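Design review, sub-item: ligand-bound model
Attendees: FS, YL, KQ
YL presented the inputs for the nicotinamide-adenine-dinucleotide complex:
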Amino acid sequence: MKTLTVELGARRYPIYIGSGLLAQPDIFRQHIKSTQVLVVTNDTVAALYLQPVLNQLQDYRVESLILPDGEQFKTLDTLSTVFDKLLAAKFSRNATLIALGGGVIGDMGGFAAACYQRGIAFIQIPTTLLAQVDSSVGGKTGVNHPLGKNMIGAFYQPQCVIADADVLDTLDDRQLSAGLAEVIKYGLIRDIEFFVWLENNMEALLARDKTALAYAIEQSCVNKAHIVAEDETESGVRATLNLGHTFGHAIETGSGYGHYLHGEAVAIGTCQAADLSRRKGWLTEADVDRIISLFMKARLPVIPPAQMTTEQFLELMAVDKKNVDGQIRVILLKTIGAALLPIDVESSLLQQTLNSYGR
Ligand code: NAD
Ligand code: MG
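KQ shared the predicted structure:
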């Protein structure tokens, strides 16, 4: 097992990464503050991993809450049922909430923990690759609003994150690849060595080799932890984690939510950002080819949906959170392994990318 630390002063916390971690009770127990524990999960994950987790907690007063599975349930209404459960169980301020699931459960469980009696302890047990390398680390929690994704939330850090590579065995191939898009992102924005390692080890990752997966999770978390420690609330370098996301969000919306998984849209969007970085004179054509090849190797799409027009992209990209005064801002690459902070791009270059890349 590897232990990393997210260095956030008094709120610093460990990320445990390895195999067989759900069967090691000591990992949980040192982070649980009282006898009251609520495990929040969904019906898919409960069928697979709830019992193994409950087995480690037999001498606690454990309650579990099984939510319906799906992004459409990441809402204030569902959140309310978590509070109902905590209150009905008469759980107090020193209770601990364990979020067992993918990013939806982690975001919602974390936000419930942040709000219940103004904050109780929580533990993240991420069960998708995306959650292990991205959403469980960094303290962004929240739910969706009918008018916008992740619009209601809080920064709230967990007591610890337990990333067990074994749980990825049951994840479907498409979800695994979607998580790999964010993994590749870390190499691109700040870690050329990791990027090269990914080029050489993609087959092992797709074959779910546990050593390879644990290494990829570790390197991803090392990179994310550094960024979060430097810029917890996203006033600077944390924005580089949005590489490919301005294009990607436009694709998610433009193609109808649910058509592409987030990681799939990010893969396409990152290729577009790479193309734009080449037009700026920073990446070479060979760099762009290398980036596209790695996403393809990870079985991710790299071509924007044919039906989306340049005008539609521009319209959707104009609503991004990074924009200032209506000017579209994107994260671009100076080289493979070095991203720049959000920059205003000349609309002529952006249009060239949107008109030409993958068309
Ligand atoms: P998800 O939570 O919906 O999980 C994907 C699917 O996999 C679900 O059907 C889930 O039930 C299933 N699943 C989970 N673990 C499984 C396992 N081990 N075996 C089999 N099936 C399993 O989606 P996700 O991709 O994990 O997370 C997406 C969410 O994360 C979005 O809501 C997004 O906004 C959020 N997110 C948050 C942050 C952050 O910083 N907080 C970052 C990125 C994404
Ligand atoms: Mg993302």
